[in-house]
Design a protein that fits this description.
The protein is an alpha+beta fold and 196 residues long. The protein is built from six helices and nine strands. Strands 2, 3, 4, 5, 6, 7 and 8 form a seven-stranded antiparallel β-sheet that branches. Strands 1-9 form a two-stranded parallel sheet. Strand 4 and strand 5 form a beta hairpin. Helix 1 crosses helix 2.
Length: 196
């Protein structure tokens, strides 16, 4: 009786929604370098890495038919990024903090891409070459068929599905009308919630 009136579903166990594998959704450019050039730089730097983001970048490069270039050497900073050297040039691939820590500011032209990628729960990988940011590569979890199955029991229009993994992002997609109690700085909750 209640389900037809539900307009938002929040999933807390994201393992039921994803395949546990990251995938590059797209490549955002920051300047003259094109998508394939940015991806090629990232793949060259990451080609010996085995963490999920690196594998997603390498998978996308293979999908596009790219041949990964060899590098002369690399320095990996755990949790931040990697600096690779090839043909006298330096390529850095990693977080915003990693690039900025090496004196390479991220241009404002990527702000919209950063915001959209964050809202989708993607990991953000920045690519820079010779102190210039080339672009941004978001990598997000690959969905499985559960959301499509769940949507079959929801109203045909106006329904939204959110993951509870990125908890702060859940609030962005709910229609808030009441203040939340006990959570400092949190936005208000909708009038009614159904917990299953």
């Amino acid at each position: 009786q209640v389900l037809p009136r539900v307009d938002t579903v929040v999933f807390d166990k994201t393992g039921t929604l994803t395949l546990g594998q990251l995938r590059v959704s797209r490549v955002h450019t920051a300047g003259a370098a094109g998508e394939d050039e940015i991806l090629a730089c990232a793949a060259a730097a990451e080609h010996r890495q085995t963490h999920p983001v690196a594998l997603a970048i390498l998978d996308e490069a293979e999908h596009r038919g790219q041949i990964v270039s060899k590098i002369d050497g690399a320095d990996y900073e755990i949790g931040f990024g990697i600096t690779a050297r090839a043909a006298g040039r330096t390529v850095r691939v990693g977080s915003r903090r990693f690039l900025e820590g090496h004196g390479t500011p991220v241009p404002g032209s990527l702000a919209a891409a950063e915001r959209d990628s964050h809202e989708q729960g993607s990991s953000l990988v920045y690519v820079a070459r010779d102190e210039e940011v080339l672009g941004l590569i978001p990598a997000g979890m690959m969905p499985n068929s559960v959301p499509a199955s769940a949507s079959s029991v929801m109203p045909s229009s106006g329904s939204r599905f959110c993951s509870g993994a990125a908890f702060s992002r859940v609030f962005a997609c709910l229609p808030f009308t009441e203040p939340i109690s006990g959570l400092e700085g949190a936005p208000p909750l909708p009038l009614s919630l159904i917990h299953i």
